[in-house]
Structure formats: structure tokens, C-alpha cells
Amino acid sequence: MDRFVSNFTNRLDAKGRVSIPAPFRAVLARDGFEGLYVHPSLDLKALDAGGNALLSDIDRLLETLSPYSDERDGLATALLGVSEVLKVDSEGRVVLTESLKTYAGVSDQVTFVGQGRKLQIWEPERFRAHLDQARATVRELKRRLEQTTSREPAS
Amino acid sequence: MDRFVSNFTNRLDAKGRVSIPAPFRAVLARDGFEGLYVHPSLDLKALDAGGNALLSDIDRLLETLSPYSDERDGLATALLGVSEVLKVDSEGRVVLTESLKTYAGVSDQVTFVGQGRKLQIWEPERFRAHLDQARATVRELKRRLEQTTSREPAS
DNA sequence: CGGGATGATTTGGGATACCATGGGGCCTTA
DNA sequence: TAAGGCCCCATGGTATCCCAAATCATCCCG
Questions:
Q1: What tens digit of pLDDT does each residue of A89-118 get?
Q2: Do A74 and B141 touch (CB under 8 A)?
Q3: How far is the CA of A90 from the C1' of D22 (A)?
Q4: pLDDT tens digits for range A42-82
Q5: Where are the domains of chain B?
Q6: For a designed S-S bond to A127, which of A26, A79, A116, A122 qualifies (C-beta 3.0 to 4.6 A apart)?
Q7: Largest CA distance in chain B
């Protein structure tokens, strides 16, 4: 398994360190990236994190824009300019910078959420709320699908 | 990591010296350039800086314009003509020239912002404002991309 | 089916190294 | 000789490393 799956909640210690969940560390190790690449999500109050896979996604996105264009500069600023490459200690922990914690509203606990090629870092309460809302959206979508197609519910 | 990522704010001392953030120094060292190449940004009240990678980007840009054209001369003047190659002292500090500081509105602090192959130098308050604007622009850009492609959000 | 027991993982803390910053003084240059 | 640039060393604060304790999960045996 080479992608981030499931979610884990860990606490920050007095020095602000958090353990990256072991399953996620395994994915990162296979990815081959030294450290943890983290940046604020563009539209959620959460952090996106990952390794080379995430980096190359960002690179690809930047390459679609012409050099020296405003769009590209803006994107580089909004992504690379506010990113951090966090060092991982020998126990698999990282320390989030102040600005990252502020952005995500993190204080003493964080929830790591698998997203396939990347992972997200949430303040636990916010993640619960986000999850509830996402489920509601999905239920709504499912209901609409069931109305247009005349198939029976898939449970 | 071979690109400029994240941002750091450092202060100028009484002699006008600023430390280049250590992670950026590491990138410059790998790039192999002696010193720090700096020029005013073409359209922002900030400075662009870097090493050989930035230099070769500029070269490539100039080559796209026909030799002896007014455009090329103008661009060469605006980039190369106002560039400085700053010496880096043994502690990794540089001294910005008066004209560079004036252009960027720098007084006693600067923010170094990673942009991948190059970095930018900002007066901290101006950078905050610029970042807000860049994020807004990117959100808009992302919305457009999501409409054209039917892929899932990249966050 | 319950109770340990074993190994992995997370959490904690002290020591250490690195880095941003400040200042002295020499040496060049005008 | 005065000014400025440059090199070197000193210091405080912070991040990193290494070792130890506690927590948790899994597996095995009774």
C-alpha cells in the first residue's frame, strides 16, 4: 500500500512535537522524501502534507502556467512561499511552525487524515465537523442520483 | 531539497547585514553560485534573488526575444542592468544596497520567500498583504480549473 | 475465551548543535 | 587619516538528537 489511508489523532508534547502515525511514516519512507512537506490548504482550514508525490503534483500544476505570468507567481507564492519542509526526528515526530498551527487552529492535538497521494492535518474538532458536512453532502448527492436513475439504493 | 521553499523573516543589524536563512543558503550552495544575485522584481515591490538557476532562467527569457529588438534591450536593462551580486560573509549574511532597499521599501526587517528556483525579498508587511492577494487569486484560479477538468479537488 | 507477554508506537526530557545576531578590530581605499 | 568593507569571535535562543518511560496493540498459551 503506497498511499495515505485512514485517520489518526495524536497529541503535541510540551515542545510542540507530534508523532506522524506509523502507517503514514511507512508511506513517506517508500516515497523517498526526506522530511515532511507541509503547506496550508488553499480552501480548507487544514494543512496538506506529503512527500515527493505531493511535490510533483505541485510542480505539474506550476508548469501548466507560463513562466513570469501573474498566475504562476501567485501560485508559487501561495504554495511554495508558505510551505515548510519539516524535519522528522528519529522517533518519527515533527514540529509544526507557528504559522501552520495558527492557520489550522491547532493547539494540543492534531488529526492526520489520509487522502491518497497526500495527507491532511486537522485540528480534531474541526475535522469532525468537516467530516459530518462531507457526509451530508454525499447523502444529498446520492439522493439526487437515486432520483434521476430508477435504480434501487445500493444500501 | 534543491529549491527555495517557505519563508523567513530576519532583521538587519546596525551595519545593514541580514542573515540569509540557513535552508536557502543550503540551496544556494548546491546551486554553486558565489554570492547572491539580486534584482528588483519586474512588477512587484520586491526583490528577486537566487543563483545560477535564476541566471539561466533570465537568459532563457531573453533568448525568446529577437536580438537588437527594443523589447529585448528593455528587458535586459530592467533585469541585468539593475542587478547586484551581493557578497555573502562567513556567517551567511548579505548587505542590500541602498537602491535595492529603497525599491522594496525595506528598513529594518526583510522576509525571504521561497519561489522554487528563485527567492523573493520583501518588506514583511508588504509581503503579508501580497500573500493575501495571491491566495485569493489562486482560489479563483483553482475554481476555474475544477470546472474545466472533472478531476477531484487537489485541495 | 481470558490473561499475559512481547514488540511496536507514542510520549517525555535532558543534552547538544546550529543559527541568527551583535560587536571588535584589521585592512583596504579614497 | 577617516570611512567603509570584511573577517573573526562571542552570545542567546531555539531546534535537533539521543536515550528513557509509558501506552497500546497483537499474538500466544493456558
A1: 999 999 999 999 999 999 999 999 999 999
A2: yes
A3: 18
A4: 989 999 999 999 999 999 989 888 877 888 899 999 999 99
A5: 7-123
A6: A122
A7: 55
